[in-house]
């Protein structure tokens, strides 16, 4: 009679421990996310840096085959 009760009690202990550890991990991640939310990652290029952009030409319309060829040509 003692053996099944011990197994049930051990199962409950493991479940409670798992729940506490999971909650601590979750709230730890939320705390980290909150702290790094306003962290500025990127700065404007300075010095001789070149801005990279591709102007959109309204006359240049690609059909699906042209876009597919560009996809394979650029390797993206």
TrEMBL record:
Record's keyword terms, sorted: Membrane, Transmembrane, Transmembrane helix
Keyword Transmembrane set for record: yes
Highest rank taxon of the organism: Bacteria
Pfam families: DUF4227
Membrane-spanning segments: 7-29
Record's protein name: Dihydrodipicolinate reductase
């Amino acid at each position: 009679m003692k053996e099944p009760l011990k197994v049930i009690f051990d199962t409950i202990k493991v479940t409670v421990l798992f729940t506490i550890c999971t909650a601590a991990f979750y709230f730890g991640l939320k705390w980290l996310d909150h702290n790094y939310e306003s962290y500025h990652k990127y700065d404007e290029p300075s010095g001789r840096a070149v801005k990279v952009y591709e102007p959109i030409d309204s006359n240049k319309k690609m059909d699906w085959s042209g876009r597919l060829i560009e996809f394979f040509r650029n390797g993206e």
